[in-house]
Write a structure and sequence with these properties.
The complex is a heterodimer of chains A (about 550) and B (about 500).
Chain A lengths: L2 H13 L19 E2 L3 H9 L6 E12 L3 H12 L5 E4 L11 E3 L4 E3 L4 E3 L6 H9 L3 E2 L8 E2 L10 E5 L2 E4 L9 H19 L21 H4 L3 H7 L5 H15 L8 H9 L13 E3 L5 H11 L3 E2 L2 E8 L4 E7 L4 E12 L6 H4 L5 H7 L4 E11 L14 E4 L7 E3 L12 E8 L5 H10 L2 H13 L5 H4 E14 L3 H5 L2 H6 L5 E3 L10 H15 L8
Helix pairs in contact in A: 1-13, 3-10, 3-18, 7-9, 8-9
Chain B lengths: L1 H30 L2 H22 L7 H17 L1 H11 L4 H27 L5 H54 L7 H28 L1 H7 L1 E6 L4 E7 L2 E6 L2 E5 L3 H13 L7 E5 L5 H6 L7 E5 L4 H8 L1 H6 L9 E4 L3 H5 L6 E6 L7 H4 L4 H10 E10 L7 H12 L4 E9 L3 E9 L20 H5 L20 H14 L1
Classes of the chains: A alpha/beta (about 550), B alpha/beta (about 500).
Bound molecules: flavin-adenine dinucleotide.
Protein name (chain B): Polyamine aminopropyltransferase
Keywords (chain B): Cell membrane, Membrane, Polyamine biosynthesis, Spermidine biosynthesis, Transferase, Transmembrane, Transmembrane helix
Pathway (chain B): Amine and polyamine biosynthesis; spermidine biosynthesis; spermidine from putrescine: step 1/1
Chain lengths: ~550, ~500
């Protein structure tokens, strides 16, 4: 979609505002479905300042963690693991998980956001411990090449790309690509391999995941966009540009012209995980995506996790932190008094709930911008017919499309025969500004998305629209922090990482890009801080 | 007038024989055992004709009207007999034989009525000796014509459905012609015209639809020799017959040929099960045809056989279809057999140390879905379901045509901590075929085997374990869910064989 079309679509959609949200009877030719998303009403109420009830009760805890996404849950997981009991994790939604939440239907569970975890490298020992605890990693979690549970390693065949009218294996464009372009691709891959092996001044990998355990962004890479860096290095092959841009959109929801080269290269050079029973680029995945992890973490927390609890005002005093929390189901507020506080919700939201924001954080806020995303799950009676040699894969990408393609949610099913399939379609709204994208998300009706998605996928699977029985759409207005050159060349991230008095932030935002490993790292770090531990692994 | 009636005798006789031949040919194609089918069908038909002739005495008045009505009935019944039998066979496999004989009997009886009635019509127009000689000789001539035409031209060119309809049409035309001839003597000629016209319309409509009926049935018999084709939600099941050989195809892959399946199934079961004289509980994964179970049931000490088969249509077919029940010795109806229609992989997850002998008889790894059933994750679960001293046997493609694939399966089974004993046997319709025995303890070949085996005996068993150089072990990697090496290897190797 061109930028112009996008804006026009936005205004068209805005015109049909009244339709948004309700689509019981779909227009003819379109499958039924729902428009879903995180509870926006509460968020708006917060920003509008239209008030919440006053506190009717006071609760005391040593540590309070706000936000039950990957980061907040990891924080609680580590606390519990170290035997700490006096804490609470508050989650606004009715279920923890944040961007890793999922849904399910009779065919399969399916992700609404994060759906896979790359093999964690030696830089992520806590994450490996957690995987071992959950039975996804077997034997020694600190082994150079641990063994993973093969039911959770992505099954073959893994990836294919639809390009020039046919499916090819793998995502790097090869089919119908000229020799000269392929040489450039080769050079890029080699350059990445050498970056991957580069160490920083302290002997750590220059690019590591979590990024805090690797080198700091260098000025040369931080302030330039990934697109410009490619040009600067003499890469002009369109297929390579597409591939690199795809990577930025896929992991960061951001066009490569707005992505810092440091982040763009991190995507390719920052993974050092290996396995004794899988290739290093294999990933862990489940039908429900990463909520396989967050559900287990949430379960471990038991009563310490409180869903339907939204922090709406935070104050820091000499004695401790006072937090007003709205309990949506009871329609009342309670006051939490805590010695220490971890803000594990998006960093940018803190400004809305903390009137007296510490000045170092205050200045950082201006650098934060969030990417809007859309995820749709399509339930099909049967998998679309295949014409070529390449069978349906886990990840199926369309060259040059607005969306990122689709993942087959039930790919990890052990059944020989499923009753249909669920395709999870991903689309970052990178064609226009984040604000325009959010506007479109707020206003476009279900039929608009259904039409656009079916048209896009129908180009390569003519039978897909007819096979689709349900098409649900999830809108993420502020899905993830955008790793822009200006963010990485500012001191915003280092400032946000510094605790202020009794409050520390813990969220993937602190990395500047949104990855499960990053969220996990910041969560565990905050737990150590709460426990006054020296860093075991740092 | 007499000549016209005599001509109709010719037609009527020809039609009678034609229906008989159609029924006999059809039933021998569908049910098999042509000698029995031909003689029983002809027997029933002849005796029914006798009954019809005897019943003719009860026709007193309106002989012409009765003759015409009988013609119409024969025409319709006989004309649609082939189509009806095909559909009965495809959709109601149970009462097929009953329907066949019933139909043959009714047609035979009606035909048996015809000749006496014609003779009585001609009674006053010819002398008795002339009457008998002419009617009977023309009757035999009509039969002769059809018996020559049927195998030479009708069956191969027109097929069963159309042949039957063609003769049905002739019967109806005779009825109409007779109505015209006797239009002045008939009391209820309006009604007869109407009935005749309707019958004509029906038969013509039958011809129009014959193409579609044929594509289901005829081509099956004469081109593909398909006796059954069924698409279930899981696969396409096709059963073919060619002379005495029955073959089963699942998704176009040959599963067995009745001619040599005993070699396959004896080799699959006996080297393993005969070495476990104490084995009581047996599990069969895949193999809903019951042929492996037929071999297992030869062991009296086996108390229960659990068959896990995804597609309920398979065991249902092999439980009911007469020819298939003959093939598997009615194994699936044995009280020792329990059938579970579910996905083997998911089901295995919940089984622990339960089975003394496990038979893994899945289709070849031709796609990624089936390929999952050949991975270490699968064998790990199968291993868990094995009792302490239990043993498992796995059908594992051909060590000759797909050598790398075969040894990949061996390597994969060994990777879950089981000791393997690979072996192979020659099954002509597949070629050299491979199996793998696996267990926690070393294997010693059995000395005693059940009686009545045609392929395996104590002398042939040791030879199965020798691998000549062209199919001897080659280094291979473990087949995992996340690499599915086997599917790729198998595809490449099989492509080379076909080239
Ligand atoms: C569409 C999409 C696909 C993705 N795919 C992947 C992937 O495949 N792999 C991967 O590694 N990463 C992926 N990600 C990135 C994903 O964001 C991270 O992996 C990770 O889940 C982020 O966790 P977090 O805890 O940092 O943040 P969040 O998930 O944002 O968690 C924050 C939590 O705080 C809660 N909260 C907010 N405000 C309040 C309040 N006032 N009071 C109480 N609670 C509050 C929120 O409800 C939320 O649960 C994806 C993201 C998106 C949007």
């Amino acid at each position: 979609m061109k930028r112009r079309d996008f804006l026009r679509a936005g205004s068209l959609a805005a015109g049909s505002l009244g339709l948004a949200g309700c689509s019981r009877t779909p227009p003819p030719g379109l499958p039924p479905g729902q428009l879903l998303g995180p509870s926006q009403a509460l968020g708006h109420r917060l920003r509008d300042g239209t008030g919440f009830p006053a506190a009717s009760e006071t609760r005391k805890v040593e540590a309070l963690i706000i936000g039950g996404g990957m980061a907040g849950l990891s924080c609680g997981w580590w606390l519990k693991r170290q035997g700490h009991a006096s804490f609470a994790v508050l989650e606004l939604e009715n279920e923890a998980g944040g961007n890793a939440r999922s849904g399910s239907n009779p065919i399969s569970a399916y992700p609404w956001g994060a759906h896979y975890l790359p093999l964690p490298g030696p830089e992520a020992p806590e994450l490996r411990l957690m995987l071992a605890e959950f039975g996804a990693l077997k034997g020694d979690p600190h082994a150079l090449r641990p063994e993973y549970e093969e039911r959770y390693l992505c099954f073959a065949p893994q990836e294919r790309l639809h390009i020039h009218g046919a499916w090819q294996e793998g995502l790097l464009p090869q089919f119908g690509i000229a020799q000269a372009e392929r040489h450039q691709q080769q050079r890029f891959v080699e350059q990445i391999a050498s970056m991957k092996a580069t160490l920083d001044g302290r002997g750590r990998p220059a690019f590591a995941t979590p990024s805090a355990r690797g080198g700091s962004p260098t000025a040369a890479l931080a302030g330039i966009s990934m697109a410009d860096w490619l040009q600067q290095q003499g890469y002009d092959a369109p297929s390579l540009h597409w591939w690199v841009n795809y990577g930025c959109r896929d992991d960061y929801g951001t066009d490569y012209r707005q992505t810092s080269a440091w982040a763009g290269l991190h995507y390719h050079a920052g993974r050092h995980g290996q396995a004794s029973n899988a290739d290093s680029d294999d990933v862990l995945t489940w039908p429900e995506g990463n909520s396989w992890l967050t559900r287990r973490m949430a379960q471990g927390l038991g009563d310490a996790l409180q869903p339907n609890a939204m922090a709406w005002q935070i104050e820091q005093t000499a004695q401790g932190c006072s937090v007003l929390v709205y309990l949506a189901q009871e329609n009342r507020s309670v006051r939490y008094l805590a010695d220490k506080l971890v803000w594990a919700a998006p960093a940018g939201f803190l400004a809305h709930v903390m009137p007296s924001l510490p000045p170092p954080w205050q200045t950082a806020m201006a650098q934060l911008s969030y990417a809007p995303w859309l995820v749709a799950n399509l339930s099909l009676r049967a998998p679309p017919a295949e014409r070529g040699q390449q069978p349906l894969c886990w990840d199926n990408v369309l060259y040059g499309a607005a969306g990122l393609g689709y993942v087959v949610a039930n790919h990890q099913s052990l059944q020989l025969h499923d009753q249909g399939c669920v395709l999870s379609y991903y689309r970052p709204l990178t064609e226009a500004t984040p604000a325009a994208g959010r506007k479109l998300l707020q206003t476009a009706p279900h039929a608009y998305w259904a039409r656009s998605i079916l048209a896009e996928l129908g180009r390569v699977h003519p039978d897909l629209p007819g096979l689709t029985e349900q098409l649900d759409v999830w809108r993420w207005g502020h899905a993830m922090l955008r790793p822009t050159p200006s963010l990485f060349s500012s001191d915003a991230l280092p400032r946000l990482r510094q605790p202020q008095g009794r409050i520390m932030l813990a969220h993937s935002d602190l990395s500047g890009f949104s990855l499960a490993e990053e969220a996990h790292y910041w969560g565990v770090r905050a737990a150590r801080w709460l426990l006054d531990h020296k860093d075991e692994f740092a | 007038m007499p000549y016209a009636l005599l001509f109709s005798v010719f037609v009527v006789a020809a039609c009678g024989l034609a229906y008989e031949l159609v029924a006999a040919a059809l039933s021998s194609y569908l049910v098999g055992d042509s000698v029995t089918q031909f003689s029983t069908v002809i027997g029933v038909y002849l005796s029914a004709m006798g009954v019809g002739s005897w019943l003719s005495r009860y026709f007193q008045r309106d002989l012409i009207g009765s003759f015409i009505r009988i013609e119409l009935a024969v025409g319709l019944l006989g004309g649609f007999s082939a189509a009806a039998l095909f559909f009965a066979f495809t959709w109601l496999s149970g009462p097929f034989l009953l329907l066949l004989y019933l139909l043959v009997f009714v047609i035979g009886m009606l035909v048996g009525l015809e000749i006496p009635l014609v003779m009585r019509l001609l009674e006053h127009r010819l002398q008795f000796k002339d009457l008998v000689s002419r009617v009977l000789s023309i009757d035999y001539l009509g039969a002769l014509a059809v018996s020559l035409l049927f195998p030479l031209w009708l069956a191969p060119k027109l097929g069963m459905v159309r042949t039957a309809l063609l003769f049905g049409l002739l019967n109806v035309l005779v009825a109409l012609w007779t109505t015209w001839l006797f239009r002045h003597e008939l009391v209820s000629r309006r009604v007869l015209w109407l009935q005749g016209g309707s019958a004509l319309v029906l038969i013509v409509a039958g011809f129009a639809a014959a193409d579609r009926l044929s594509s289901i049935a005829e081509t099956a018999l004469y081109e593909d020799r398909i006796v059954l084709a069924e698409s279930t939600p899981y696969q396409r099941i096709v059963l073919t017959r060619w002379r005495d050989d029955v073959r089963l195809f699942l998704n176009n892959n040959l599963q067995f040929s009745a001619r040599d399946e005993y070699r396959y199934h004896e080799a699959l079961i006996h080297p393993g099960l005969a070495s476990l004289p104490w084995a009581k509980r047996v599990l069969v994964l895949g193999g809903g045809d019951g042929l492996a179970i037929r071999e297992i049931l030869r062991y009296p000490q086996v108390e229960s056989v659990t068959l896990v088969e995804l597609d309920p249509a398979m065991p249902a077919l092999f439980k009911q279809h007469p020819a298939l029940r003959g093939l598997n010795g009615d194994a699936l109806n044995s009280p020792r057999v329990r059938i579970i229609n579910t996905d083997a992989f998911r089901w295995l997850e919940s089984q622990a140390n339960a089975y003394d002998f496990i038979v893994v008889d899945f289709p070849d790894p031709t796609n990624f879905a089936v390929g999952k059933l050949y991975t270490n994750t699968f064998y790990r679960m199968a291993e868990r379901a094995l009792s302490a001293r239990g043993r498992m046997v796995v059908q594992s493609t051909s060590p000759l045509y797909a050598r790398q694939s075969y040894w990949t399966v061996v390597q994969t089974i060994e990777s879950v901590g089981l000791q393997t004993r690979p072996y192979h046997a020659l099954v002509p319709s597949f070629g050299e075929w491979g199996f793998i025995l696996a267990g926690r303890e070393p294997y010693t070949p059995p000395q005693r085997l059940p009686t009545g085996l045609r392929f395996i005996n104590a002398d042939t068993i040791p030879g199965l374990f020798n691998f000549p150089p062209d199919m001897d072990r080659t280094p291979a990697e473990v087949n995992r869910l996340n690499n599915q090496l086997l599917v790729r290897t198998f595809e490449q190797e099989w492509k080379q064989v076909q080239r």
